[in-house]
Amino acid sequence: MAKRTPLYEEHVKCNARIVDFAGFDMPVQYSGVVEEHNAVRKAAGLFDVSHMGEFEFTGPDALPFLEYLTPNSVSKLTDGQAQYSMLCNENGGIVDDILVYRFNPEKFVMVVNASNIEKDWQWIQKNTGRRTQYAIRNISDQTALLALQGPKAKEIIKTDLKPFHFFEGELFGVKNCTIARTGYTGEDGFEIFCPADQAVTLWQALLKAGAPLGLKPTGLGARDTLRLEARLSLYGHEINDETNPLEAGLSWVVKLDKPFDFIGKQALKKIKEGGLKRQIVGFKMIDKGIPRQACPLTDGKSQIGFVTSGTFSPTLQIGIGLGFVPTVFSPIGTKFNIDIRGTQKLAEVTAVPFYKRK
Amino acid sequence: MEFPDDLKYTKEHEWVRVKGDTATMGVSDYAQEQLGDIVYLELPEEGEEIEKGEPFGVVESVKAVSDIYGALTGKVVEINDPLTDNPETINEDCYEEGWLIRVKIANPKEMEDLMDAAQYQAYIKEETA
Description:
The complex is a heterodimer. By secondary structure, chain A is an alpha+beta fold.
């Protein structure tokens, strides 16, 4: 049976349509994907993302261990700061994309994708080396995670917190929250960790406080269209064990010159020196049609690539997508075809993100 | 959800309105609700032959792609052309403004396989149980 987050009953109460996602019964939509999408762009939305995993690293070896596990520079973080990063394998492929939060010099929390919790845990255990001065705990089941996203979010949680920073405190009477100014929608907003047994209280309090501002519960359907308009990668689509961060447009995460060895460093160095053969581009449809994951991209005769993510963009009102193409097809304005169920439809490489907040 | 009594229905969740030798087809209230926000629609051309139980068009929501199946065999005599520019009309009014195609019925005997509103509602109940 699928797992449930502490907020499952709340979703049912809000008339959610529940689907299986990464082994969890999750709300894909409440009132409708487009309405929820627009709520986040214009007001605010509240997502339950408690299915995501959290690993806590503590001890004097926590920092050097994280430097070894991830290509970004963990040492650059100060207390109360978060960083987008990833776990890479020896070939430079991506085991998972993650966020790393520094609470203090000897305590970090890594947030991982729900679908990869088990895989990441095994991967980390396999790569501990001779380190002993650290402890790692999987705190996923005892941690709930809510994402409050949209231009009105800062009127619901009033704080001058900077992006990618966080603090620990009480929120709407719920103690032991961690409030971070992060998100996955292209809007301003917060991600809030709280003890699993307090999730319902916090969910209800946030919905109540935000209702007069237009806050709505928002599901995974809108989360996907929002992240795609903001050109944010999704594991299993843009990135996986066989794609590397350089071709995936995430080279800014890889700090080859950081003074630590890390898994995948040699491979990524070689890939960078050799130049990229393919890369991910954003494209919009010129012909009518909606690109979907795995649709072939063609030059009219033969296949040149494939779609990694595609959707109808509620903001732009056209089909948009991301896909791998040979580097020669990557300049903005380049046209190619998408084979959508056997029909060739014209598309054009466009600047990303597709949507940028003002 | 509404299921008008004067219509016939299929297991693939299309509705049919028969007038003389012409059948108008669309997707049911249940189908449009299951699909969610409809954002794209592909219809056949006038003059094309469609077959009972075979796909004749495609409807897409933000998240999903679904085929639309012929309720009866026949030649397409009219399509609801403006609908392809405003496919969300199907969500708003699936039985009137949201009709898809009109077909000249080739084999009236096929109508015996269609369900009436009560049978269709029982079918949905069974399918979702």
